[in-house]
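During the no-cost extension, the postdoctoral fellow (Dr. R.K.) reprocessed legacy sequence entries with the updated structure-token encoder. One reprocessed record is reproduced below for audit purposes.
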Amino acid sequence: MPDDVDADEITDPFWSIVRRRHPDLDIVLLPPTKPAPDTSGLEPRAPETFAHEHLAEVDRAWADLVGHGMPLSTAQWIPGPTRDSVCHSVTLTLGEVEESVALGHLRAAAELLAPGHWRVFLPPRGMPRVTADRDGRLGDEHLLFGYAIENRNLFLRLESTGVPVGERTAYELIGAAA
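Re-encoded structure tokens follow.
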């Protein structure tokens, strides 16, 4: 930061506070960010077996959060946190759900997810939804549960933690999804 800049002249919200609280501060050195590792260092797993287990987990989540209907299911492999891993993403969608029913499911979701060690966030604006994540062995699991008012769709998306499958298999699985 140049010395000739007065604290009153700084309009940036962050730097104006830094300058006001620390007028003697000249340089800020931040530690280098550690790059993500190329490989997980974990033994590769069979992706088909993991996908089957993950689909069963998604079905259990739907049963706990909704408990009715036959939702449409779509699944895909997405990049994992390392080059030798992938994540499995499954979305369940149930159409023609009454708004009052869907909002009731969303209101109950935080309480239902808590015992499973999910960190739950209820966004105050926008589409009615619940987002949650929880620690996994290789990155976090992510859950999105929401209601699209316009087309009356209730949906649940669950993205798995990273699954070590080897670089070549990860490339093939992600490439197959494209």
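The beta strands are 72-79, 85-94, 119-121, 129-136, 139-148, 153-159, 163-164. DSSP finds four helices and seven strands in the chain. The remaining legacy entries will be reprocessed before the final report is submitted.
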